[in-house]
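cron nightly-structures :: item 1 of 1
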Amino acid sequence: MLGDIVRFVVALVVLLGFGTIIGFRIGTDPFQALLACLLVLAFALSLSWVAVLIGMLAREPGTVQGIGFLLMFPLTFGSSMFVPVKTMPDWLQAWVRVNPVTHLVDAVRGLMLGGDVAWPVTQSLLWSAGITLVFAPLAVRAYRRRT
């Protein structure tokens, strides 16, 4: 998990640096931008517990990668990350509106560019806490059984 933290921080710094180079500008104050980064890190760490559990249960590294992809694909591409929700078909909008990645994207956009953030930040924090509360004990238990 410590390695994941370092990897996520480096990825975030590179992403923000490259974004700045190609023209992205933060439209809010530094505190809100830092809060957006911390929110992304918290969510990523909660998902790391899912990966740890899968890693403890699967026998092959390729299996872990495959299962991880199958879990992340609908979360990432079934979110508001790439297109506005209202442009999607009704059946997809239903999923996108409850997708934790959509809440995270909305919160980060609001914190970085300005806009309403109270509810999206709350939802993102609740999802992060919920995922961690469910998967951290399961991952630790699987680790203890395996070692």
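cron nightly-structures :: done
The chain has a mean pLDDT of 94.
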